[in-house]
């Protein structure tokens, strides 16, 4: 299944069309997107046993974040070997966790206002939780707690993130539209192997032109390079917190982030972030820098 948010209503993307879930289920599920995940087991049983209607054509620009109001958003830092290598840091022994605030969520084709000249990018696999989970006993239990997967971007204003006396990860990563994700939540049966997915980020516009190529490839990695697998992340998180249906976990980014190379996003840029089997985010950037942006 591919579950999306079309103009604020939960839909299934089926054969290139959008099927309104509340309509197709005669009001049994939806229309609120998160309500689908609150009734995940019942919903998946219904969808597997129901012949869906053809659905309607839709404008991809009308897609919002598949879950606009998660209870919790977690993000995992330094979780790819090649990213740790480029940063010159040792591989962590335990998951590194921060959060992105819900006001930073956006749909897959969001326009992003740049608050300064120091905004970086991090393409990530996002995992959506499908069942309330605390102190999971095994990695298999963690796998069963997964509803699906999406593409996410963890945009970061590095000056705010790294200013002292201690880093402000969550604050620097939570400007409006700094957490676009989508275009849909894709279930494992449709995705294939989530442990070997290619992740890319390609840019056009002033940043690409400065690098001498447009489009210019910024990131090209694979989930096979994760230090902590998706299941391990969920298992370890659950030892401390209670995970709820619809919670989001940004699972880390592969090598190629801009800060290590002095590359930051500029007004007029267009960034396409893709994970094979899931889809793409298409973000454009506009100038919002104030006089004190440096």
Automatic annotation (TrEMBL):
Keyword hit for Electron transport: no
InterPro entries: FAH, Fumarylacetoacetase-like_C, Fumarylacetoacetase_C_sf
Molecular functions per Gene Ontology: hydrolase activity
Entry keyword set: Hydrolase, Metal-binding
Pfam family, one: FAA_hydrolase
Domain Fumarylacetoacetase-like C-terminal residue range list: 73-285
Entry's transmembrane regions: none
Matching PANTHER family: FUMARYLACETOACETATE HYDROLASE DOMAIN-CONTAINING PROTEIN 2A, FUMARYLACETOACETATE HYDROLASE DOMAIN-CONTAINING PROTEIN 2A-RELATED
Family in the record: Belongs to the FAH family.
Stated name of the protein: Fumarylacetoacetate hydrolase family protein
Species assigned in the record: Microbacterium terregens
């Amino acid at each position: 299944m591919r579950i999306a948010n079309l103009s604020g209503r939960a839909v299934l993307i089926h054969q290139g069309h959008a099927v309104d879930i509340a309509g197709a289920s005669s009001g049994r599920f939806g229309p609120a997107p998160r309500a689908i995940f609150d009734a995940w087991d019942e919903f998946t049983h219904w969808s597997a046993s129901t012949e869906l209607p053809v659905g309607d054509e839709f404008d991809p620009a009308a897609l919002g974040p598949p879950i606009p109001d998660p209870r919790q958003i977690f993000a995992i830092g330094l979780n790819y070997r090649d990213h740790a290598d480029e940063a010159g840091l040792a591989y962590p022994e335990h998951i590194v966790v921060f959060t992105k605030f819900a006001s930073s969520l956006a749909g897959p084709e969001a326009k992003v206002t740049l608050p300064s000249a120091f905004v970086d990018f991090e393409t990530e696999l996002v995992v959506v939780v499908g069942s309330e989970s605390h102190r999971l006993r095994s990695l298999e239990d963690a796998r069963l707690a997964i509803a699906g997967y999406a593409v996410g971007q963890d945009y970061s204003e590095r000056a705010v993130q790294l200013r002292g006396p201690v880093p402000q990860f969550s604050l620097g990563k939570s400007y409006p539209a700094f957490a676009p994700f989508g275009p849909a939540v894709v279930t494992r049966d449709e995705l294939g192997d989530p442990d070997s997915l290619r992740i890319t980020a390609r840019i056009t516009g002033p940043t690409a032109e400065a690098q001498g190529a447009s489009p210019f490839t910024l990131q090209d990695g694979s989930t096979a390079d994760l230090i902590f697998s998706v299941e391990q992340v969920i298992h370890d998180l659950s030892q401390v917190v209670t995970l709820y249906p619809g919670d989001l976990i940004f699972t880390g980014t592969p090598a190629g982030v801009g800060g290590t190379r002095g590359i930051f996003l500029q007004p007029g840029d267009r960034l396409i972030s893709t994970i094979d089997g899931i889809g793409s985010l298409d973000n454009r950037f506009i100038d919002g820098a104030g006089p004190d942006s440096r």
